[in-house]
Amino acid sequence: MKRILLVAAAAMILAGCPSFHPEGPQTPPPVIPIEPSEPTEPVTPPPSDKVPTPPKQKTIDWSSAISPLINQMVGTSGVEGGKVLLVDSVKNNTTGSFSVQNATAAIVKEVDDSHHFKVVPQDVANAARKTLGLSQEDSLVTRSKAIGLGRYVQADYVLYSVVSGSSKQRDIEMQLMAVQSGEILWSGKNDIE
To answer: Which Gene Ontology MF annotations are present (predicted)?
Structure first.
């Protein structure tokens, strides 16, 4: 306590001391006038006619990779038609990037076109994801999260999909799971071109 009082007293004493100025008259530094030179316009480079070429992005034909898998799934024995199916967001396990929404939309379209299931609309699935705190771009999508989402939207089946590989060679694996039991009823894999 004494130290604190001593430090506070020393600070107050030093704060009250006037600062010392050297004795004698102070002369301001000399001002040297500079003659203005002729104004020059900024030099702009001539316009270039060449526009840089953006890097080529490979478009993915999801339909050709997904269609055979959906046909296999629909033809599997034990998979009942007319049931409610939730298409879960595609999980990206590749070293590159791609639009998960485009891949998921392509799967929904192919399943819809098969007329075998009643597909949960994507806006309903997205609202359920938001309610459950799941992101649309969730990179930690698991089968248990997919089944939980399926139970929330009262689906009978969940279609879980994973894209694996590198940016040059990718494949897609799909699994049809029963929501109530979690049993994998069908599984298929195909290359993505």
So the answer is: enzyme regulator activity
Q: pLDDT tens, 62-104?
A: 888 899 999 999 988 888 889 999 999 888 888 888 888 888 8
Is residue 157 classed as helix, strand or coil in its secondary structure?
Answer: strand
Q: What is the 3-state secondary structure (H, E, C) of 4-69?
A: HHHHHHHHHHHHHCCCCCCCCCCCCCCCCCCCCCCCCCCCCCCCCCCCCCCCCCCCCCHHHHHHHH
| Topology, domain 81-192 | Rossmann fold (3.40.50)
Domain boundaries, the chain: 81-192
d(C-alpha 158, C-alpha 83), whole Å: 11
